[in-house]
Amino acid sequence: MDSSFSSFSSSSTSIHFSAPASDHLPFWNRGSSPMDHNGGNSRGAPGDSLTGGDFHYVLEDVPHLTDYLPDLPANLNPLQDNPAYSAAKQYFVNVDDAVAQNVVVHNNSPRGTHFRRAGPRQKVLFESDEVHACIVTCGGLCPGLNTVIREIVCGLYRMYGVHRVVGIEGGYKGFYARNTIPLTPKSVNNIHKRGGTILGTSRGGHNTTKIVDSIQHRGINQVYILGGDGTQKGAAAIFEEIRRRGLKVAVAGIPKTIDNDIPVIDKSFGFDTAVEEAQRAISAAHVESESNENGIGLVKLMGRNSGFIAMYATLASRDVDCCLIPESPFYLEGEGGLFEYIEHCIKEHGHMVIVIAEGAGQELMSESIHKLDQQDASGNKLHQDVGLWISQQIKDYFKEKRKMVINLKYIDPTYMIRAVPSIASDNIFCTLLAQSAIHGAMAGYTGFTVGPVNGRHAYIPFQRITERQNKVVITDRMWARLLSSTNQPSFLHPKHVSDEQNNKNLSVQLVSSFRKENHVEENNVEKLK
Protein backbone atom coordinates (compact mmCIF):
# COMPACT_ATOMS: atom_id res chain seq x y z
CA MET A 1 0.00 0.00 0.00
CA ASP A 2 1.21 3.49 -0.85
CA SER A 3 2.07 5.11 2.46
CA SER A 4 0.63 8.39 1.13
CA PHE A 5 -2.81 7.08 1.98
CA SER A 6 -2.12 5.67 5.44
CA SER A 7 -3.51 7.37 8.52
CA PHE A 8 -1.36 10.19 9.82
CA SER A 9 -0.22 10.43 13.42
CA SER A 10 -1.24 13.30 15.65
CA SER A 11 2.24 14.78 15.48
CA SER A 12 1.69 15.96 11.92
CA THR A 13 -1.04 18.00 10.26
CA SER A 14 -2.85 16.57 7.25
CA ILE A 15 -4.88 19.19 5.39
CA HIS A 16 -7.09 18.50 2.37
CA PHE A 17 -7.91 21.50 0.21
CA SER A 18 -10.05 22.39 -2.79
CA ALA A 19 -10.09 25.32 -5.18
CA PRO A 20 -9.66 28.74 -3.55
CA ALA A 21 -12.68 30.89 -2.84
CA SER A 22 -10.86 33.76 -4.58
CA ASP A 23 -8.16 33.80 -7.22
CA HIS A 24 -6.19 36.15 -4.98
CA LEU A 25 -5.91 33.70 -2.09
CA PRO A 26 -3.17 31.05 -1.80
CA PHE A 27 -4.73 27.69 -2.61
CA TRP A 28 -4.19 26.27 0.87
CA ASN A 29 -4.27 29.39 3.03
CA ARG A 30 -6.94 28.12 5.43
CA GLY A 31 -7.09 27.74 9.20
CA SER A 32 -4.35 30.34 9.52
CA SER A 33 -2.48 31.11 12.69
CA PRO A 34 -1.68 34.66 13.87
CA MET A 35 1.71 34.38 12.14
CA ASP A 36 0.26 33.92 8.64
CA HIS A 37 -0.04 37.53 7.64
CA ASN A 38 3.40 38.68 8.74
CA GLY A 39 5.35 36.18 6.70
CA GLY A 40 5.26 33.27 9.14
CA ASN A 41 3.51 29.95 8.80
CA SER A 42 0.30 29.16 7.00
CA ARG A 43 -0.94 26.14 8.89
CA GLY A 44 -3.97 24.67 10.57
CA ALA A 45 -4.15 23.41 14.11
CA PRO A 46 -2.69 19.95 14.75
CA GLY A 47 -5.00 17.31 13.35
CA ASP A 48 -7.13 19.75 11.31
CA SER A 49 -8.65 18.21 8.18
CA LEU A 50 -10.47 20.60 5.83
CA THR A 51 -12.10 18.89 2.84
CA GLY A 52 -14.04 20.15 -0.17
CA GLY A 53 -13.96 20.49 -3.94
CA ASP A 54 -12.42 18.21 -6.50
CA PHE A 55 -8.67 18.78 -6.17
CA HIS A 56 -7.92 16.31 -3.37
CA TYR A 57 -4.94 18.44 -2.36
CA VAL A 58 -3.20 17.15 0.79
CA LEU A 59 -0.55 19.07 2.70
CA GLU A 60 1.10 16.65 5.09
CA ASP A 61 2.54 19.23 7.44
CA VAL A 62 5.15 19.03 10.20
CA PRO A 63 4.74 20.21 13.80
CA HIS A 64 5.56 23.78 14.81
CA LEU A 65 6.54 25.15 18.22
CA THR A 66 3.46 27.41 18.20
CA ASP A 67 1.27 24.29 18.13
CA TYR A 68 1.90 23.89 21.86
CA LEU A 69 3.51 27.26 22.71
CA PRO A 70 1.11 29.66 20.95
CA ASP A 71 2.45 32.86 22.52
CA LEU A 72 6.01 32.62 21.21
CA PRO A 73 7.10 35.93 19.63
CA ALA A 74 8.32 35.98 16.03
CA ASN A 75 11.34 38.00 14.89
CA LEU A 76 12.61 39.16 11.53
CA ASN A 77 15.02 36.69 9.93
CA PRO A 78 18.61 38.03 10.18
CA LEU A 79 19.31 36.64 6.70
CA GLN A 80 17.74 39.78 5.24
CA ASP A 81 20.82 41.67 6.47
CA ASN A 82 23.31 38.96 5.52
CA PRO A 83 25.60 40.17 2.70
CA ALA A 84 25.92 36.63 1.37
CA TYR A 85 22.23 36.71 0.45
CA SER A 86 22.19 40.26 -0.95
CA ALA A 87 22.43 38.98 -4.53
CA ALA A 88 19.60 36.49 -4.09
CA LYS A 89 16.49 37.33 -6.11
CA GLN A 90 14.26 36.19 -3.27
CA TYR A 91 15.50 35.79 0.29
CA PHE A 92 12.71 33.66 1.65
CA VAL A 93 10.57 30.71 0.69
CA ASN A 94 6.95 31.65 0.06
CA VAL A 95 4.77 30.49 2.94
CA ASP A 96 2.49 28.72 0.45
CA ASP A 97 5.23 26.70 -1.28
CA ALA A 98 4.87 22.93 -1.12
CA VAL A 99 6.53 19.99 -2.83
CA ALA A 100 4.44 17.29 -4.50
CA GLN A 101 5.24 13.70 -3.57
CA ASN A 102 4.15 12.44 -6.98
CA VAL A 103 4.96 14.41 -10.12
CA VAL A 104 3.73 11.90 -12.71
CA VAL A 105 -0.05 12.22 -12.87
CA HIS A 106 -2.95 11.68 -15.25
CA ASN A 107 -5.25 14.44 -16.42
CA ASN A 108 -7.90 13.43 -13.90
CA SER A 109 -5.56 12.56 -11.01
CA PRO A 110 -6.07 14.10 -7.56
CA ARG A 111 -3.54 16.72 -6.50
CA GLY A 112 -2.18 14.18 -3.99
CA THR A 113 0.19 14.49 -1.05
CA HIS A 114 2.49 17.49 -0.64
CA PHE A 115 5.14 18.44 1.91
CA ARG A 116 6.12 21.87 3.16
CA ARG A 117 9.01 23.24 1.11
CA ALA A 118 12.30 23.69 3.00
CA GLY A 119 14.13 26.99 3.13
CA PRO A 120 14.45 30.26 5.08
CA ARG A 121 11.31 31.99 6.35
CA GLN A 122 10.72 35.72 6.75
CA LYS A 123 10.09 35.28 10.48
CA VAL A 124 12.03 33.13 12.95
CA LEU A 125 11.18 32.01 16.48
CA PHE A 126 14.75 32.01 17.79
CA GLU A 127 17.01 34.98 18.29
CA SER A 128 20.64 34.32 17.46
CA ASP A 129 22.01 34.86 20.97
CA GLU A 130 19.46 32.53 22.59
CA VAL A 131 20.21 29.50 20.41
CA HIS A 132 22.15 26.65 22.03
CA ALA A 133 22.34 23.88 19.43
CA CYS A 134 23.64 20.33 19.59
CA ILE A 135 24.49 17.74 16.95
CA VAL A 136 24.52 13.95 17.41
CA THR A 137 25.41 11.12 15.00
CA CYS A 138 24.01 7.62 15.52
CA GLY A 139 24.16 4.21 13.86
CA GLY A 140 26.70 2.99 11.32
CA LEU A 141 29.23 5.09 9.45
CA CYS A 142 28.37 6.71 6.15
CA PRO A 143 30.30 9.02 3.80
CA GLY A 144 29.29 12.62 4.39
CA LEU A 145 28.67 12.60 8.14
CA ASN A 146 31.50 15.04 8.81
CA THR A 147 30.34 17.25 5.95
CA VAL A 148 26.85 17.55 7.46
CA ILE A 149 28.35 18.35 10.88
CA ARG A 150 30.56 21.02 9.32
CA GLU A 151 27.73 22.63 7.38
CA ILE A 152 25.37 22.75 10.37
CA VAL A 153 28.04 24.49 12.45
CA CYS A 154 29.08 26.91 9.70
CA GLY A 155 25.48 27.56 8.67
CA LEU A 156 24.40 28.45 12.20
CA TYR A 157 27.40 30.72 12.68
CA ARG A 158 27.50 32.44 9.29
CA MET A 159 23.82 32.64 8.35
CA TYR A 160 22.20 33.22 11.73
CA GLY A 161 25.00 34.43 13.99
CA VAL A 162 24.65 31.48 16.39
CA HIS A 163 27.81 30.95 18.46
CA ARG A 164 26.81 28.15 20.82
CA VAL A 165 26.98 24.79 19.07
CA VAL A 166 28.11 21.55 20.72
CA GLY A 167 28.59 17.99 19.58
CA ILE A 168 27.27 15.00 21.53
CA GLU A 169 29.88 12.25 21.70
CA GLY A 170 29.15 8.61 20.96
CA GLY A 171 25.53 8.64 19.75
CA TYR A 172 22.38 8.83 21.85
CA LYS A 173 24.03 7.54 25.01
CA GLY A 174 26.39 10.51 24.85
CA PHE A 175 23.56 12.76 26.03
CA TYR A 176 23.77 11.29 29.51
CA ALA A 177 27.10 9.43 29.55
CA ARG A 178 29.69 11.83 28.13
CA ASN A 179 30.68 15.46 27.89
CA THR A 180 29.94 17.66 24.91
CA ILE A 181 32.44 18.96 22.35
CA PRO A 182 32.36 22.70 21.51
CA LEU A 183 32.06 23.16 17.75
CA THR A 184 33.14 26.27 15.84
CA PRO A 185 33.77 26.96 12.14
CA LYS A 186 37.48 26.83 12.86
CA SER A 187 37.35 23.44 14.62
CA VAL A 188 35.29 21.82 11.85
CA ASN A 189 36.91 23.56 8.88
CA ASN A 190 38.63 20.52 7.36
CA ILE A 191 36.62 17.62 8.72
CA HIS A 192 34.76 17.09 5.42
CA LYS A 193 38.02 15.71 4.02
CA ARG A 194 37.93 12.83 6.49
CA GLY A 195 35.72 9.77 6.66
CA GLY A 196 33.70 8.72 9.69
CA THR A 197 32.36 11.19 12.26
CA ILE A 198 34.40 13.39 14.59
CA LEU A 199 31.66 12.99 17.21
CA GLY A 200 31.81 9.21 17.33
CA THR A 201 28.76 7.02 16.96
CA SER A 202 27.05 3.99 18.45
CA ARG A 203 23.98 1.84 18.06
CA GLY A 204 21.26 1.73 20.68
CA GLY A 205 21.64 3.59 23.96
CA HIS A 206 18.36 5.43 23.53
CA ASN A 207 16.68 6.43 26.78
CA THR A 208 14.14 9.15 25.99
CA THR A 209 13.72 10.43 29.53
CA LYS A 210 17.44 10.69 30.21
CA ILE A 211 18.10 12.33 26.86
CA VAL A 212 15.43 15.00 27.32
CA ASP A 213 16.56 15.54 30.92
CA SER A 214 20.06 16.22 29.55
CA ILE A 215 18.74 18.56 26.86
CA GLN A 216 16.75 20.47 29.45
CA HIS A 217 19.61 20.56 31.98
CA ARG A 218 22.15 21.83 29.43
CA GLY A 219 19.78 24.50 28.12
CA ILE A 220 19.85 23.13 24.57
CA ASN A 221 17.03 24.41 22.36
CA GLN A 222 17.93 23.03 18.92
CA VAL A 223 18.75 19.35 18.38
CA TYR A 224 20.10 18.07 15.06
CA ILE A 225 20.03 14.27 14.80
CA LEU A 226 21.87 12.37 12.03
CA GLY A 227 20.92 8.72 11.59
CA GLY A 228 18.87 6.06 9.84
CA ASP A 229 15.30 4.92 10.39
CA GLY A 230 15.99 3.59 13.89
CA THR A 231 17.67 6.84 14.86
CA GLN A 232 14.78 8.87 13.43
CA LYS A 233 12.30 6.81 15.46
CA GLY A 234 14.34 7.81 18.51
CA ALA A 235 14.23 11.43 17.36
CA ALA A 236 10.44 11.22 17.10
CA ALA A 237 10.28 9.94 20.69
CA ILE A 238 12.53 12.79 21.84
CA PHE A 239 10.27 15.32 20.10
CA GLU A 240 7.13 13.86 21.70
CA GLU A 241 8.67 14.04 25.18
CA ILE A 242 9.84 17.62 24.58
CA ARG A 243 6.35 18.58 23.43
CA ARG A 244 4.81 16.86 26.46
CA ARG A 245 7.04 18.96 28.73
CA GLY A 246 6.23 22.13 26.81
CA LEU A 247 9.86 23.00 26.05
CA LYS A 248 10.93 25.49 23.41
CA VAL A 249 13.23 22.99 21.69
CA ALA A 250 13.27 22.29 17.94
CA VAL A 251 14.15 18.73 16.90
CA ALA A 252 15.40 18.28 13.32
CA GLY A 253 16.44 14.99 11.74
CA ILE A 254 18.79 14.47 8.82
CA PRO A 255 18.27 10.96 7.41
CA LYS A 256 21.42 8.88 7.01
CA THR A 257 21.52 5.49 5.39
CA ILE A 258 24.14 4.30 2.97
CA ASP A 259 21.65 1.69 1.68
CA ASN A 260 19.31 4.45 0.40
CA ASP A 261 16.36 2.61 1.97
CA ILE A 262 14.55 5.61 3.51
CA PRO A 263 11.17 6.21 1.81
CA VAL A 264 9.69 9.46 0.43
CA ILE A 265 13.05 11.18 -0.20
CA ASP A 266 14.83 10.86 -3.55
CA LYS A 267 18.05 9.56 -2.00
CA SER A 268 20.13 9.78 1.16
CA PHE A 269 23.57 11.36 1.51
CA GLY A 270 26.55 9.05 1.06
CA PHE A 271 24.76 6.91 -1.53
CA ASP A 272 26.54 8.47 -4.54
CA THR A 273 29.88 8.02 -2.80
CA ALA A 274 29.08 4.37 -2.04
CA VAL A 275 28.19 3.66 -5.67
CA GLU A 276 31.36 5.41 -6.85
CA GLU A 277 33.61 3.59 -4.37
CA ALA A 278 32.00 0.23 -5.23
CA GLN A 279 33.37 0.65 -8.76
CA ARG A 280 36.89 0.05 -7.47
CA ALA A 281 35.91 -3.31 -5.99
CA ILE A 282 34.01 -4.33 -9.14
CA SER A 283 36.95 -3.32 -11.35
CA ALA A 284 39.31 -5.39 -9.20
CA ALA A 285 36.98 -8.38 -9.44
CA HIS A 286 36.83 -7.96 -13.20
CA VAL A 287 40.62 -7.88 -13.52
CA GLU A 288 40.96 -11.00 -11.33
CA SER A 289 38.32 -12.94 -13.25
CA GLU A 290 39.75 -12.01 -16.67
CA SER A 291 43.28 -12.94 -15.62
CA ASN A 292 42.47 -16.48 -14.48
CA GLU A 293 41.12 -19.53 -16.26
CA ASN A 294 37.41 -19.93 -15.54
CA GLY A 295 37.67 -16.88 -13.32
CA ILE A 296 34.77 -15.66 -11.19
CA GLY A 297 34.92 -12.33 -9.37
CA LEU A 298 32.36 -12.05 -6.56
CA VAL A 299 31.74 -8.69 -4.86
CA LYS A 300 29.49 -8.28 -1.82
CA LEU A 301 28.03 -4.79 -1.38
CA MET A 302 25.91 -3.21 1.32
CA GLY A 303 22.14 -3.63 1.24
CA ARG A 304 20.63 -5.40 4.23
CA ASN A 305 17.06 -5.16 2.95
CA SER A 306 17.38 -3.00 -0.17
CA GLY A 307 19.59 -3.57 -3.19
CA PHE A 308 20.04 -0.01 -4.44
CA ILE A 309 23.84 0.13 -4.10
CA ALA A 310 24.27 -3.21 -5.88
CA MET A 311 21.83 -2.22 -8.64
CA TYR A 312 23.30 1.24 -9.33
CA ALA A 313 26.91 0.04 -9.03
CA THR A 314 26.14 -2.71 -11.53
CA LEU A 315 24.54 -0.30 -13.98
CA ALA A 316 27.45 2.11 -13.65
CA SER A 317 30.14 -0.56 -14.07
CA ARG A 318 29.08 -2.43 -17.23
CA ASP A 319 31.51 -5.19 -16.21
CA VAL A 320 28.97 -7.13 -14.12
CA ASP A 321 27.35 -10.27 -15.47
CA CYS A 322 24.99 -10.96 -12.59
CA CYS A 323 23.48 -8.84 -9.79
CA LEU A 324 21.66 -10.42 -6.85
CA ILE A 325 19.58 -8.30 -4.45
CA PRO A 326 17.22 -9.02 -1.52
CA GLU A 327 14.11 -7.96 -3.45
CA SER A 328 14.66 -10.47 -6.25
CA PRO A 329 14.58 -14.12 -5.11
CA PHE A 330 16.84 -16.57 -6.88
CA TYR A 331 17.61 -20.25 -6.77
CA LEU A 332 20.86 -22.12 -7.31
CA GLU A 333 20.32 -25.41 -9.09
CA GLY A 334 18.10 -26.48 -11.94
CA GLU A 335 17.00 -24.97 -15.21
CA GLY A 336 17.17 -21.17 -15.14
CA GLY A 337 19.08 -21.24 -11.85
CA LEU A 338 22.21 -19.32 -10.86
CA PHE A 339 24.61 -22.24 -11.36
CA GLU A 340 23.37 -22.84 -14.91
CA TYR A 341 23.90 -19.15 -15.75
CA ILE A 342 27.41 -19.14 -14.25
CA GLU A 343 28.35 -22.15 -16.36
CA HIS A 344 26.94 -20.46 -19.45
CA CYS A 345 28.99 -17.28 -18.84
CA ILE A 346 32.22 -19.18 -18.22
CA LYS A 347 31.80 -21.26 -21.38
CA GLU A 348 30.80 -18.19 -23.41
CA HIS A 349 33.29 -15.61 -22.09
CA GLY A 350 35.79 -17.55 -19.99
CA HIS A 351 35.03 -15.47 -16.90
CA MET A 352 32.27 -13.59 -15.07
CA VAL A 353 31.63 -10.98 -12.35
CA ILE A 354 28.86 -11.32 -9.76
CA VAL A 355 27.66 -8.54 -7.46
CA ILE A 356 25.55 -9.58 -4.47
CA ALA A 357 23.90 -7.40 -1.82
CA GLU A 358 24.46 -8.50 1.76
CA GLY A 359 20.76 -9.26 2.32
CA ALA A 360 20.28 -11.37 -0.80
CA GLY A 361 19.75 -15.12 -0.59
CA GLN A 362 19.14 -15.16 3.15
CA GLU A 363 16.24 -17.60 2.78
CA LEU A 364 18.61 -20.05 1.04
CA MET A 365 20.93 -19.89 4.05
CA SER A 366 18.19 -20.42 6.63
CA GLU A 367 19.24 -23.94 7.57
CA SER A 368 22.80 -22.92 8.36
CA ILE A 369 22.09 -19.54 9.99
CA HIS A 370 22.43 -19.67 13.78
CA LYS A 371 21.81 -15.95 14.38
CA LEU A 372 18.68 -15.62 12.29
CA ASP A 373 16.57 -14.26 15.14
CA GLN A 374 19.27 -12.10 16.67
CA GLN A 375 19.44 -8.33 16.25
CA ASP A 376 22.06 -5.65 16.66
CA ALA A 377 21.70 -2.76 19.10
CA SER A 378 19.72 -0.76 16.51
CA GLY A 379 17.16 -3.54 16.10
CA ASN A 380 18.43 -4.70 12.69
CA LYS A 381 18.34 -8.44 11.99
CA LEU A 382 21.83 -9.93 11.93
CA HIS A 383 22.73 -11.65 8.68
CA GLN A 384 25.37 -14.25 8.01
CA ASP A 385 27.93 -13.46 5.32
CA VAL A 386 26.11 -14.41 2.13
CA GLY A 387 29.29 -13.75 0.13
CA LEU A 388 31.30 -16.44 1.90
CA TRP A 389 28.35 -18.83 1.81
CA ILE A 390 27.58 -18.49 -1.89
CA SER A 391 31.30 -18.62 -2.77
CA GLN A 392 31.50 -22.03 -1.12
CA GLN A 393 28.29 -23.19 -2.79
CA ILE A 394 29.64 -22.26 -6.23
CA LYS A 395 32.99 -23.96 -5.59
CA ASP A 396 31.36 -27.15 -4.31
CA TYR A 397 28.90 -27.34 -7.21
CA PHE A 398 31.49 -27.01 -9.97
CA LYS A 399 34.01 -29.26 -8.24
CA GLU A 400 31.67 -32.07 -7.27
CA LYS A 401 28.90 -31.98 -9.88
CA ARG A 402 30.42 -30.40 -12.98
CA LYS A 403 34.03 -31.52 -12.45
CA MET A 404 35.20 -28.07 -13.54
CA VAL A 405 38.12 -26.10 -12.15
CA ILE A 406 37.14 -22.52 -11.34
CA ASN A 407 39.10 -19.66 -9.82
CA LEU A 408 36.80 -17.63 -7.57
CA LYS A 409 37.96 -14.41 -5.91
CA TYR A 410 35.70 -12.96 -3.20
CA ILE A 411 35.90 -9.22 -2.39
CA ASP A 412 34.05 -7.54 0.50
CA PRO A 413 34.67 -3.75 0.43
CA THR A 414 31.92 -2.91 2.96
CA TYR A 415 33.96 -1.11 5.60
CA MET A 416 36.25 0.52 3.05
CA ILE A 417 33.20 2.11 1.41
CA ARG A 418 31.60 3.24 4.66
CA ALA A 419 34.77 4.92 5.90
CA VAL A 420 35.74 7.06 2.89
CA PRO A 421 35.15 10.83 2.64
CA SER A 422 32.20 11.89 0.53
CA ILE A 423 32.64 12.81 -3.12
CA ALA A 424 31.82 16.24 -4.58
CA SER A 425 28.15 15.59 -5.36
CA ASP A 426 27.52 14.27 -1.85
CA ASN A 427 29.33 17.25 -0.32
CA ILE A 428 26.95 19.62 -2.10
CA PHE A 429 23.99 17.46 -1.10
CA CYS A 430 25.10 17.48 2.55
CA THR A 431 25.33 21.28 2.48
CA LEU A 432 21.74 21.57 1.23
CA LEU A 433 20.47 19.13 3.86
CA ALA A 434 22.25 20.92 6.71
CA GLN A 435 21.10 24.39 5.68
CA SER A 436 17.52 23.23 5.12
CA ALA A 437 17.46 21.73 8.62
CA ILE A 438 18.82 24.98 10.09
CA HIS A 439 16.22 27.13 8.31
CA GLY A 440 13.43 24.87 9.56
CA ALA A 441 14.58 24.84 13.18
CA MET A 442 15.10 28.62 13.25
CA ALA A 443 11.58 29.14 11.86
CA GLY A 444 10.13 27.04 14.68
CA TYR A 445 9.42 23.81 12.83
CA THR A 446 10.13 20.70 14.87
CA GLY A 447 9.60 16.95 14.76
CA PHE A 448 10.67 16.80 11.13
CA THR A 449 13.30 15.33 8.88
CA VAL A 450 14.58 17.00 5.75
CA GLY A 451 15.28 15.59 2.33
CA PRO A 452 14.79 16.03 -1.42
CA VAL A 453 11.38 15.08 -2.83
CA ASN A 454 11.36 15.17 -6.61
CA GLY A 455 14.41 17.40 -6.60
CA ARG A 456 13.10 19.95 -4.07
CA HIS A 457 14.03 19.85 -0.40
CA ALA A 458 11.08 19.50 1.96
CA TYR A 459 10.19 19.06 5.62
CA ILE A 460 8.75 15.59 6.23
CA PRO A 461 7.08 14.27 9.41
CA PHE A 462 9.17 11.66 11.21
CA GLN A 463 6.58 8.90 10.89
CA ARG A 464 6.60 9.09 7.09
CA ILE A 465 10.24 8.02 6.86
CA THR A 466 10.08 5.39 9.60
CA GLU A 467 6.84 3.61 8.67
CA ARG A 468 8.47 1.41 6.00
CA GLN A 469 11.69 0.87 4.07
CA ASN A 470 12.36 1.90 0.50
CA LYS A 471 13.03 -1.12 -1.71
CA VAL A 472 13.91 -1.85 -5.30
CA VAL A 473 10.72 -2.62 -7.25
CA ILE A 474 11.65 -5.50 -9.52
CA THR A 475 8.65 -4.91 -11.80
CA ASP A 476 9.80 -1.35 -12.57
CA ARG A 477 11.92 -0.20 -15.50
CA MET A 478 15.13 0.39 -13.55
CA TRP A 479 15.46 -3.28 -12.70
CA ALA A 480 14.57 -4.12 -16.31
CA ARG A 481 17.44 -1.85 -17.41
CA LEU A 482 19.79 -3.81 -15.18
CA LEU A 483 18.63 -7.16 -16.57
CA SER A 484 19.17 -5.78 -20.05
CA SER A 485 22.66 -4.56 -19.11
CA THR A 486 23.87 -7.79 -17.51
CA ASN A 487 21.85 -10.09 -19.77
CA GLN A 488 21.14 -12.24 -16.73
CA PRO A 489 17.90 -14.19 -16.31
CA SER A 490 15.40 -12.92 -13.75
CA PHE A 491 15.82 -16.14 -11.68
CA LEU A 492 12.14 -15.74 -10.83
CA HIS A 493 9.68 -18.58 -10.70
CA PRO A 494 6.33 -17.58 -12.27
CA LYS A 495 4.88 -17.59 -8.75
CA HIS A 496 7.23 -14.78 -7.67
CA VAL A 497 6.21 -12.61 -10.63
CA SER A 498 2.53 -13.28 -9.89
CA ASP A 499 2.97 -12.38 -6.20
CA GLU A 500 4.76 -9.11 -7.09
CA GLN A 501 2.02 -8.14 -9.54
CA ASN A 502 -0.70 -9.04 -7.02
CA ASN A 503 0.94 -6.78 -4.42
CA LYS A 504 1.04 -3.93 -6.96
CA ASN A 505 -2.61 -4.49 -7.91
CA LEU A 506 -3.63 -4.52 -4.23
CA SER A 507 -1.91 -1.17 -3.72
CA VAL A 508 -3.78 0.31 -6.70
CA GLN A 509 -7.09 -1.06 -5.37
CA LEU A 510 -6.48 0.44 -1.91
CA VAL A 511 -5.62 3.83 -3.43
CA SER A 512 -8.74 3.75 -5.62
CA SER A 513 -10.86 2.81 -2.61
CA PHE A 514 -9.42 5.72 -0.64
CA ARG A 515 -10.22 8.14 -3.46
CA LYS A 516 -13.79 6.86 -3.82
CA GLU A 517 -14.42 7.15 -0.08
CA ASN A 518 -12.92 10.64 -0.05
CA HIS A 519 -15.19 11.64 -2.97
CA VAL A 520 -18.26 10.36 -1.09
CA GLU A 521 -17.24 12.39 1.97
CA GLU A 522 -16.89 15.51 -0.18
CA ASN A 523 -20.35 15.01 -1.68
CA ASN A 524 -21.79 14.64 1.81
CA VAL A 525 -20.11 17.88 2.84
CA GLU A 526 -21.58 19.68 -0.16
CA LYS A 527 -25.08 18.34 0.66
CA LEU A 528 -24.77 19.57 4.24
CA LYS A 529 -23.89 23.02 2.93
Automatic annotation (TrEMBL):
Its cofactor is Mg(2+). Keywords: Allosteric enzyme, ATP-binding, Cytoplasm, Glycolysis, Kinase, Magnesium, Metal-binding, Nucleotide-binding, Transferase. It catalyses: beta-D-fructose 6-phosphate + ATP = beta-D-fructose 1,6-bisphosphate + ADP + H(+). Pathway: Carbohydrate degradation; glycolysis; D-glyceraldehyde 3-phosphate and glycerone phosphate from D-glucose: step 3/4. Residues 134-439 form the Phosphofructokinase domain. One of its GO terms (biological process) is fructose 6-phosphate metabolic process. Substrate binds at residues 257-259, 302-304, 358, 415-418. Its EC number is 2.7.1.11. One of its GO terms (molecular function) is metal ion binding. Mg(2+) binds at residue 229. Residues 28-47 are annotated as: Disordered. One of its GO terms (cellular component) is cytoplasm. Pfam families: PFK. The record marks 230 as: Important for substrate specificity. It is found in: Cytoplasm. Signal peptide: none annotated. Its main location: cytoplasm. Allosterically activated by AMP. Catalyzes the phosphorylation of D-fructose 6-phosphate to fructose 1,6-bisphosphate by ATP, the first committing step of glycolysis. Homotetramer. Belongs to the phosphofructokinase type A (PFKA) family. PPi-dependent PFK group II subfamily. Atypical ATP-dependent clade 'X' sub-subfamily. This is ATP-dependent 6-phosphofructokinase. It comes from Cucumis sativus.
